[in-house]
Amino acid sequence: MIKDNKQKIKLLQLNEMLRQESDPEHPLRTVVICDKLKTFGISCDRRTLSKDIKVLREFGFDIKEKMIGHEKGYYVDQRGFSVAELKIMIDAIQAASFVTKDKTDDLVYRIATMGGTRKSDILKSNIVCFNTRKHTNEEIYSNVEVLEKALQEKTQASFYYFDLNEKGERVYRKEKKRYVVEPMALIFNEDNYYLMCFSSKYDGITNYRVDRMEDVQVEEEPVTPGAIIDDSDIAEYTKQAFKMYGGPVIDITLEFDDKLLGVVEDKFGEDVNVVRTGPDKLVASVQVQESPVFWGWLFQFGKQMKILSPESLVKQYKDRVKNMTDKDTEG
Q1: How far is the C-alpha of 184 from the C-alpha of 181, rounded, in Å?
Q2: Residue 292: is the preceding peptide bond cis (ω within 30°)?
Q3: Where are the beta strands (DSSP E) in 248-290?
Q4: Which has the closest alpha carbon to 161: 215, 96, 197?
Q5: What is the C-alpha to C-alpha distance for residues 178 and 157, in angstroms, rounded to an integer?
Q6: Cα separation of 175 and 165, whole Å?
Q7: Residue 322 contacts by C-beta under 8 Å, 6 or more apart in sequence?
Q8: What's the order of all strands across the beta sheet hosting 281-289?
Q9: 38, 3 in Cβ contact below 8 A?
Q10: Neighbours of 263 (CB within 10 A)
Q11: In angstroms, what CA-CA distances link 237 with 77, 85, 102, 244, 286?
């Protein structure tokens, strides 16, 4: 009976072997396949292997063959991810701060094995851990799942929201009263996940970090019409929402040294409208959300970048520079 059972799984074992260990550059020779199957207690020879391959092909498995000297070799022409594609996914997981260390290790291993044994060995030998700013909130995965359900059902969601103090302890906002929000979209930005929400009370949009949520729940109350938007609108909002911090969206004109063009394109997109105004000066019209993060981004470039318009923002820029200079003088 045991022998019969092993023969029954022969086709499954054969297909899995070819899927994991072969590719067009590395076909498995007949003798190698037979020897590997024997290690599982499955008898096989050249004649029966040829019949087994034929059966698998009849059931839709794309198994190819080529001659290796005087012997046939078989392989699966993988239609899955290439090594480069898998490496990009692994690096993205490594770079994302919201993915905890334990979850990162788990996901990296599972992604690496998606390419089969040969690709997995290549990837695992080239994994570099380069993000040491991993968050510790393991609830983020269940949070995303619950919030996605609320988005699909177009219902409100609720949660506790917290910050971390200098000891890494949770300090809850609103004295640990639940936030009840109208979800619009989950957005990945700057290594973090954010929940974009509509506020019917203020007719505006607020964003919450998913890794700062606790005990997320789906509510029965449906969202208002203002919370239901098209994907194209979400994309436009994300483009305008400067690093996900609140503030009015405004049109501004920036002048900057031409060596900062790559920085501006990275922040506002490669389709940003740029005009050369001098041998080493460029001007770009962009949309931003006025916020402390915007000012922090701008000031890091010093005299290499400045605001030309609107005048109200130019005045704010000068006032902020003056305030910082005065404080430095006082110190």
Answers
A1: 9
A2: no
A3: 249-257, 273-278, 281-289
A4: 215
A5: 10
A6: 15
A7: none
A8: 273-278, 281-289, 249-257, 305-309
A9: no
A10: 16
A11: 42, 28, 32, 10, 13
User: pTM of this prediction?
Assistant: 0.55
CB 194 within 8 A of CB 187: yes
φ, ψ dihedrals at 248, nearest 5° = -65, 140
Of the candidates 88, 91, 82, 77, the residue with the CA atom closest to the CA atom of residue 114: 82
Residue 223 gets which letter from DSSP?
Answer: P
Q: In this structure, what token pair is assigned to residue 118?
A: 């040969």
In whole angstroms, give the CA distance from residue 195 to residue 32. Answer: 53
Q: What's the length of the chain? A: 331
Distance of CA 143 to the CA centre of its chain: 16
Tokens of 19: 């899927």
Over the chain (331 residues), the average pLDDT of each successive run of 10 is: 61 84 86 88 86 86 87 79 76 78 83 68 59 72 91 95 85 94 86 83 81 95 88 66 59 94 85 90 89 86 94 90 69 50
3-state secondary structure of 222: strand
For the chain, report the end-to-end CA distance as a whole number of angstroms. Answer: 88
Alpha-carbon distance of 133 to 234, in angstroms, equals 28
Q: How far apart are CA 32 and CA 28, in angstroms?
A: 6
